[in-house]
């Protein structure tokens, strides 16, 4: 008889959109406190492939990613998205900037074969994961490279993102190997 298998642990990443460098630093500190020590932090890039968040976050949005050192169970992604939403609200109050959402936190997971992002919004390519949350496979890792889909956000199609996610993926594989 077929038996379900427990999924492998995954690497938690958080994508940060921020109004300025002070907001980025506050977000990283808050993520460290809420989810555990970060083991990798990307460079800071301009978020300029869309102006979707301009009214909420400001005209010159910065993008940065962090990965959390401790591996997690992938079934926690919906709960983590709720926690990042609350963290955004708390940071918005404490930073007191003249924009409603100075920080946007987007959690996701990296497995050996894919990057999955959590979202509050349903769409044709998203799957309900419980707790009023959805997830989408944003990138797949195929033949040594990250590959986007038609639905992949424009900024996630950049080589600099692929390079960072490849480093995170390599760290994940090392961590999984050392567990055995």
Features:
9-stranded antiparallel sheet, 9 strands, Alpha-Beta Plaits, 180 residues
Largest sheet entry: 9 strands, antiparallel
Using DSSP, what is the number of strands?
A: 9
Number of helices: 4
- SSE order, as H and E? EHEEHEHEEEEEH
- Point out poorly predicted stretches: none
Task: Indicate the structural class.
Answer: alpha+beta
CATH architecture type: 2-Layer Sandwich
From the N-terminal CA to the C-terminal CA, the straight-line distance is: 26 Å
**Rg, Cα atoms, Å:** 16 Å
Tell me, rounded to a whole number, the average pLDDT.
Answer: 97
Oligomer: single chain
Strand content: 25-35%
* Overall geometry: globular
The CATH topology assignment is Alpha-Beta Plaits
CATH class term: Alpha Beta
What report would you give on this structure?
By secondary structure, the protein is of the alpha+beta class. The chain has one domain: Alpha-Beta Plaits. The chain is built from 4 helices and 9 strands. Strands 1, 2, 3, 4, 5, 6, 7, 8 and 9 form a 9-stranded antiparallel beta sheet that branches. Strand 8 and strand 9 form a beta hairpin. Helix 1 packs across helix 3. It starts with 10 loop residues before the first strand and ends with a helix. The model has no long low-confidence stretch (mean pLDDT 97).
């Amino acid at each position: 008889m077929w038996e379900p298998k427990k999924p492998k642990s995954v690497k938690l990443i958080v994508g940060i959109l921020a109004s300025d460098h002070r907001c980025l630093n506050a977000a990283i500190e808050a993520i460290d406190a809420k989810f555990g020590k970060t083991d990798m932090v990307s460079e800071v890039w301009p978020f300029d492939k869309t102006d979707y968040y301009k009214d909420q976050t400001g005209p010159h949005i910065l993008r940065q990613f962090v990965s959390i050192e401790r591996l997690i169970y992938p079934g926690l992604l919906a709960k983590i998205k709720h926690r990042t939403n609350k963290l955004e609200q708390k940071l918005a109050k404490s930073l007191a900037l003249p924009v409603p959402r100075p920080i946007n936190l987007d959690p996701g997971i990296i497995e050996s074969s894919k990057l999955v992002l959590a979202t509050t919004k349903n769409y044709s390519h998203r799957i309900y994961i419980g707790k009023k949350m959805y997830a989408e496979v944003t990138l797949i890792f195929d033949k040594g490279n990250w590959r986007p889909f038609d639905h992949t956000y424009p900024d996630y199609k950049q080589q600099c993102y692929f390079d960072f996610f490849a480093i995170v993926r390599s760290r994940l594989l090392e961590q999984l190997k050392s567990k055995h």
